TrEMBL record:
<dbReference type="InterPro" id="IPR003593">
    <property type="entry name" value="AAA+_ATPase"/>
</dbReference>
<keyword id="KW-0346">Stress response</keyword>
<feature type="region of interest" description="Lon-protease-like">
    <location>
        <begin position="353"/>
        <end position="454"/>
    </location>
</feature>
<feature type="binding site">
    <location>
        <begin position="96"/>
        <end position="103"/>
    </location>
    <ligand>
        <name>ATP</name>
    </ligand>
</feature>
<keyword id="KW-0378">Hydrolase</keyword>
<dbReference type="InterPro" id="IPR027417">
    <property type="entry name" value="P-loop_NTPase"/>
</dbReference>
<comment type="function">
    <text>Plays a role in repairing double-strand DNA breaks, probably involving stabilizing or processing branched DNA or blocked replication forks.</text>
</comment>
<dbReference type="Pfam" id="PF13481">
    <property type="entry name" value="AAA_25"/>
</dbReference>
<dbReference type="GO" id="GO:0000725">
    <property type="term" value="P:recombinational repair"/>
</dbReference>
<dbReference type="InterPro" id="IPR041166">
    <property type="entry name" value="Rubredoxin_2"/>
</dbReference>
<dbReference type="GO" id="GO:0140664">
    <property type="term" value="F:ATP-dependent DNA damage sensor activity"/>
</dbReference>
<dbReference type="InterPro" id="IPR020588">
    <property type="entry name" value="RecA_ATP-bd"/>
</dbReference>
<keyword id="KW-0479">Metal-binding</keyword>
<feature type="domain" description="RecA family profile 1">
    <location>
        <begin position="67"/>
        <end position="216"/>
    </location>
</feature>
<protein>
    <recommendedName>
        <fullName>DNA repair protein RadA</fullName>
    </recommendedName>
</protein>
<dbReference type="InterPro" id="IPR004504">
    <property type="entry name" value="DNA_repair_RadA"/>
</dbReference>
<keyword id="KW-0862">Zinc</keyword>
Length: 454
């Protein structure tokens, strides 16, 4: 008699295997490979339902357009990321690393909303109500219209929503809430799928906005099934460096607004504060110009930010000179050093220790900062300080040509607004010519001579 075999299938991507494995070989998800025989459901035929006139399909031209209304949360930087504010009935997912400040930000959002007269329900599935109350007292987020509940059962949370009748619900977090109707521990794929789908259905039925806090894995992706990101309307990522107080909120998915907006925040002892004008966060405050520095106008989403790049070039006595970078790509810096040596005549870089860093802890990943990095290195070699009104934007090719960066008009407008009178961003300019313009401006600054704008 032939031996019966069973296949194991991943519930996320459908990958099959002849034996059970803990991790899917296709989507690399843990705990999603289950036995088909145990999870097989009998095939059922669904009879057609008679459609009433109210639910009948209509031509798309006959359907009216209802404008999506946003109500402000009271935090302009958070509203910027959401596309103008919170939409009634929207499901928002906010993810981030542990300790980055997700709960602090949402508690501030809940307090601002309660201060406008709205009834807000904050459900904490990780902390007790006393712990949340202590944080609210420290950050000044106490309000009588803000209701707290510490629950981990989905049925109890739904009962709290029916009893309080809130206008905004915050669940912290979706991976720690479990449903009694589904087997498995909280945080498992089946539990997260059931909890998220139930809460989103309540949001749509009651026209109630719900904000869900999501955990992340070691690689930074949202924990749980990928279906969670498909179900919600908005996916926001809260990120930041623990060594600095700066935090960023980015929209990875937004059905009601753009996905290239960035919100800036700063963690303080009294909670989290929004930074409406971050132009001074990434610039040093030296009174006199210093060699080895150059300012670039970086583009983060749709926001142009001035960032200062610092470089230090010293003679090395070691057989292998050091290359230390912080806030920039190391391979990109190595390429720029080769271009400077080959195309601009800086042959002494091969025997020097080179250090490149950014101010304020921001990370530059776009190629538009190439020219500023190259000028900062050349400035350190020549011991010529760039003027405080000088900025450089452009991508450097291996041939030594300067390419115009994306959104050049927006960068130039932001540079003019911040007082930069000399901005090197010309297209098809060779690196030698860019260096000549930069050091001409440096000499003119010393001689107090007006420099023509480029």
């Amino acid at each position: 008699m032939a031996r019966s075999t069973s296949n194991f299938r991943c519930t996320e991507c459908g990958w099959t295997s002849l034996k059970w494995v803990g991790r899917c070989g296709e989507c690399q998800s843990w705990g999603t490979v289950l036995d088909d025989a145990e999870n097989a459901t009998p095939t059922r035929t669904v009879a057609a339902v008679k459609i009433s006139d109210a639910r009948a399909a209509k031509p798309i031209t006959a359907i009216g357009v209802d404008e999506v209304t946003h109500w402000p949360s009271g935090i302009s930087e958070f509203d910027r990321v959401l596309g103008g504010g919170i939409v009634p009935g929207a499901a928002i997912l906010l993810s981030g690393e542990p300790g980055v400040g997700k709960s602090t930000l949402l508690l501030e959002v809940a307090s601002r909303a309660a201060a406008t007269g709205m009834r807000v329900l904050y459900v904490s599935a990780e902390e007790s109500v006393n712990q949340v109350r202590m944080r609210a007292q420290r950050t000044g987020a106490l309000h009588s219209s803000l209701y707290l509940a510490a629950e981990v059962d989905l049925g109890v949370i739904l009962g709290q929503i029916n009893q309080v009748q809130p206008q905004l619900v915050i669940i912290d977090s979706v991976q720690t809430v479990a449903s009694s109707s589904i087997d498995g521990l909280a945080g498992g794929p089946a539990q997260v799928r059931e909890v998220a789908s139930t809460l989103i259905r309540v949001a749509k039925d009651k026209n109630l906005p719900i904000v869900l806090v999501g955990h992340v894995t070691k690689d930074g992706s949202i924990a749980g099934p990928r279906l969670l990101e498909h179900l919600v309307d908005v996916v926001c990522q809260f990120e930041g460096d623990r060594q600095t107080s700066l935090r960023f909120v980015r929209a990875l998915k937004n059905r009601f607004g753009p996905t290239d907006e960035v919100g800036c925040f700063e963690m303080t002892g009294d909670g989290i504060a929004e930074v409406t004008d971050p132009s001074g966060l990434f610039l040093s405050h030296a009174r006199l110009p210093v060699s080895g520095t150059c300012v670039t106008i970086a583009l983060d989403g749709r926001r142009a930010l001035p960032v200062e790049v610092q470089a230090l070039v010293v003679k090395s006595t070691a057989p292998q000179p050091r290359r230390v970078v912080n806030g920039v790509d190391g391979s990109r810096v190595a390429m720029l050093l080769a271009v400077l040596e080959k195309r601009a005549g800086y042959g002494s870089l091969a025997s020097s220790d080179i250090y490149v860093s950014t101010v304020g802890g921001i990370r530059l990943t776009e190629p538009g900062a190439d020219l500023a990095i190259a000028i900062a290195i050349a400035s350190s070699v020549n011991e010529r300080a760039m003027p405080v009104t000088f900025a450089a934007v452009g991508e450097i090719s291996l041939a030594g040509e300067i390419r115009k960066a994306s959104s050049a008009k927006q960068r130039l407008a932001e540079a003019r607004r911040l007082g930069f009178t000399t901005v090197v961003d010309a297209e098809a300019l060779h690196i030698r010519e860019a260096m000549r313009i930069a050091f001409t401006a440096a000499v003119a600054e010393v001689d107090r001579v007006k420099v023509p704008e480029f």
